[in-house]
Design goal:
The chain has 96 residues and is of the alpha+beta class. It has a single domain, classed as Dimeric alpha+beta barrel (Alpha-Beta Plaits, 2-Layer Sandwich), CATH 3.30.70.1060. It is globular, with a radius of gyration of 15 Å. The two termini are 28 Å apart. It comes from Photobacterium aphoticum. InterPro entries: DUF3303. This is DUF3303 domain-containing protein.
Length: 96
Amino acid sequence: MTFLISWQIYQGRTHDVLAHFAQLTKEQDDALMGDDITLIGRWHDVVSGAGVCVVESNSIEAVTAYALRWNNDMDISVQPVIDDEAARQLGSALVI
């Protein structure tokens, strides 16, 4: 399954959160994510303290646990998403 994770850092916390993130090594970041999650990509709007990432996992529990590691400092949403091919297949079933 593919998930879109988006966040908005709480007002006044952006510098602290960004400084913490900047100090994480790739290995530490991977460990926070865990073995059951594959990061597809992550994009940051550091000025507004917002961002998104796309991950793949067969475990919503693992994705939820990852989001919980950060939600003291930001509002986070986790949404299952599908690619174009899957969306077209679903759309084809709606054609009358």
